[in-house]
Amino acid sequence: MSGVYTFGVRTGQAYAMIDITGEVQNIVSKSGVKNGICIVFVPHTTAGITINENADPDVVRDFLMEIGKIVPLHDGYQHIEGNSAAHIKASMMGFSQTVIIEEGRLLLGTWQGIYFTEFDGPRNRKVHVKIIEG
Ligand code: ZN
Question: How far is the CA of 88 from the centre of ligand 1 (A)?
């Protein structure tokens, strides 16, 4: 097993947290790998990836509200493209997550989901997944 699997994410709003756990688990299941690690990588500069609660949708709402306060949309930024806030927020999340695979399943906590975090949408985005058996 040595490929990179890629899937698309269509983000409908400027800011969004999209639960991609199902897509990632499907790739793990199709790979046939029972034990190993799964690396999920976002190849963008204004979107990132994080792991957080997937039970109460208010967590997503609160998360996006607060991160918007920490990094204001306009704050005297110099970047000509006008999306510095999105670049900064994306780096705060980071661009990859590593999850253990055990018995063919992502070894996430009961309340955890993998979230694609959009900060400069709406856009068509990509997510790469690499699975390493071991
Ligand atoms: Zn930019």
Answer: 10
Residue 79 alpha carbon to ligand 1 centre in Å: 7
Q: How far is the CA of 85 from the centre of ligand 1 (A)?
A: 9
Q: Tokens 């199709």 — which residue? A: 30
**CATH classification at residue 28:** 2.60.120.460
List per-residue pLDDT tens for the chain, 134 residues long: 459 999 999 999 999 999 999 999 999 999 999 999 999 999 999 999 999 999 999 999 999 999 999 999 999 999 999 999 999 999 999 999 999 999 999 999 999 999 999 999 999 999 999 999 99
97: tokens are 């997550």
Number of domains in the chain: 1
Question: CA-to-CA distance for 19 and 39, rounded, in angstroms?
Answer: 16
Tell me the CA–centroid distance for residue 82 and ligand 1, in Å: 6
**Interval between CA 39 and ligand 1 midpoint (Å):** 26
Candidates 66, 54, 69; CA nearest to 22 is: 54
User: Which domain covers residue 9, as residue numbers?
Assistant: 4-133
